[in-house]
Amino acid sequence: MAKEKVAVVTGSSSGIGLLTAVELALNGYRVVATMRNLESRGRLEEAAHKAGVRDRLDLRRLDITEFERASLERIHMPAEIVMRHRLPHFQHLFSGGGYAAGYYSYMWSEVLDADAFEAFTETGNAFDPATARRLRDWIYGAGNLRDPAEAYQAFRGRLPAVDALLKKRGLDRAAIEPVNS
Fold first, then answer.
1. Of 13, 98, 114, 171, which one is least surrounded by beta carbons within 10 A?
2. Using an 8 Å Cβ cutoff, are 108 and 159 in contact?
3. Is residue 80 part of a domain?
4. Using one digit for the tens of pLDDT, what is the confidence trace for 1-37?
């Protein structure tokens, strides 16, 4: 019996959370879509209905600050011990474009790094001279003479893919194997 794929998406009432919830549902996931205020669910429900996936969404109220407060209360955390890294401290990642755009560029750099190194791995030699020459000629030594996508394609024979980074982080099988099998 095949297990159903389930994803939990926070902040799904708008923006990237909304888009992620609908996209996951379109790709066969049962989506637990969470938001602080269920009265804000209108846009998500409308988008899911238009995409024909409303039946794949389970809408839930989730307020991280409330969750944090209840968790600390449950363990009797003394008020004198303050949280150093609270869950809401990470809102800067997704509120506004500046930080998220910068973080995306770091992530994209990691994708390029892992994918380029995979070219060496595929040869069986981390110091393969032919691959090193292509990397030097098309990437490192090319400057801004051509479109970056064209240069990478000339080096690698294709555009960059995220697979090597997922493999490097041990996540290559996570998307297809259930955690509790």
1. 98
2. no
3. no
4. 457 888 888 888 888 888 889 999 998 899 999 888 8
